[in-house]
Amino acid sequence: MWNTLDSIPGLGRSLGGEHGNPLQYSCLENPRSLCSLVCKWTYSAEKGWDDSFWKMVGLEDLVTDNYSKIGNQVLPPGASLGSGLTPEAAKDLGLPPGIAVAASLIDAHAGGLGVIGADVKGHGLACEGQPVTSRLAVICGTSSCHMGISKNPIFVPGVWGPYFSAMVPGFWLNEGGQSVTGKLIDHMVQGHAAFPELQAKAKARRQSVYAYLNSHLDLIKKAQPVGFLTVDLHVWPDFHGNRSPLADLTLKGMVTGLKLSQDLDDLAILYLATVQAIAFGTRLIIEAMESAGHSISTLFLCGGLSKNPLFVQMHADITGMPVVLSQEVESVLVGAAVLGACASGDFASVQEAMAKMSRVGKVVFPRHEDKRYYDKKYQVFLKLVEHQKEYAAIMKGD
């Protein structure tokens, strides 16, 4: 059994309890995870802390005593901490003392680690003969993160990074993101007038509301592909600003094509248009990454939204890329286990553990025959934000 842990900023030694009381997990004095420090605390994997930055922002006291307040022992994810689990923590957790404790990863990064290295042989994927840098991990839940790695640093406007060894050791990480995805879908569905009817019908069938909506879309699509139901309904999904690649917190959500109808059909189609908008946002992030130098051929999805087959199929159709789903749906836990397996010595490297511990569960291929339709909708998608900026400029003008 293994354990990994994280705390702020990137501690590899404690777990905050309900009231913030830490449990000492490892006897190593004050280690920090490279992942957390590089991604969130301006630490450089190559150069360490930058004294001038902390002095510039008025936090020069953090520099004193060799950064003892925020950490001067920095370990790569998967490194073994001290002598493992301390007796005190072992007693509290009901585990044997000395179990390997690994330097941690941020949760989304652990999800990326849990999917991106899977052995894809025999699944007919282009990435089988390509380096791991051709893969993009999308961790999608309340919000979404898009994790792409490269051998050399790539600077992508509006996308965080590059961060060296922040997820996969020896690789640079770029991290795109969408501020609201699952939360946006909930917002659109639950705010619709037909939501109480949807709840009642889903309950009667013992289904989730989203499983019911997916089956309802199949019912009303008739002979056409389900995605074509939104031919005149379009959504811009930045109801909480844009993180990537526009990096504009002032952007708002947009819906065009509304009618007086408020029935269940109307709700189902609005739900579909919202899912598509999120997938178009992923396409926009991928285009920004590829324009900067990334070469991506396959998506690896994990997180709660990856359990929704409509969400997955729309990402495949709209990006034109196959989507790989893991056999183990809780990929964040797989990533954490990868780190623990490295700390315990079961694997010599994170890369080896990734390949051995990740499994392909399902591959969803794009419907290439629908490409022209989604290309046209993508043109509308880009026009929406263009027009929103024009409206803002008009209102700010004299």
Q: Characteristics of this structure?
A:
398 residues, alpha/beta, seven-stranded mixed β-sheet, globular, disordered N terminus
Textual characterization of the structure:
- This protein has helices at 34-40, 51-56, 64-67, 87-93, 107-116, 182-190, 195-204, 209-220, 264-292, 309-319, 331-343, 350-357, 371-396, and strands spanning 3-4, 14-16, 22-24, 31-33, 73-75, 101-102, 135-140, 144-150, 160-164, 172-178, 234-236, 254-256, 298-302, 323-326, 360-364.
- It has 398 residues and is an alpha/beta fold.
- The longest helix is centred in the C-terminal third of the chain and has 29 residues, at 264-292.
- Residues 1-25 have low confidence and may be disordered.
- The strands form five sheets. It has a seven-stranded mixed beta sheet, with helices on both faces. A two-stranded parallel sheet has the order 1-6. A two-stranded antiparallel sheet has the order 2-3.
- Helix content is 38%, strand content 15%.
Short recap of the structure:
This protein is α/β, with parallel strands linked by helices and 398 residues long. The chain is built from 13 helices and 15 strands.
Structural class: alpha/beta
Instruction: Spell out the helices and strands N to C.
Output: EEEEHHHEHEHEEEEHHHEEHEHEHHEH
In which range does the helix fraction lie?
25-40%
Count of distinct strands: 15
Radius of gyration: 23 Å
- What does the overall shape look like? globular
Uncertain ranges = 1-25
Strand content: 15-25%
What order do the strands of the largest sheet run in, or round the barrel if closed? 9-10-8-7-13-14-15
Report the mean per-residue pLDDT as an integer: 92
Distance between the termini: 66 Å
Largest sheet: 7 strands, mixed
Total helix count? 13
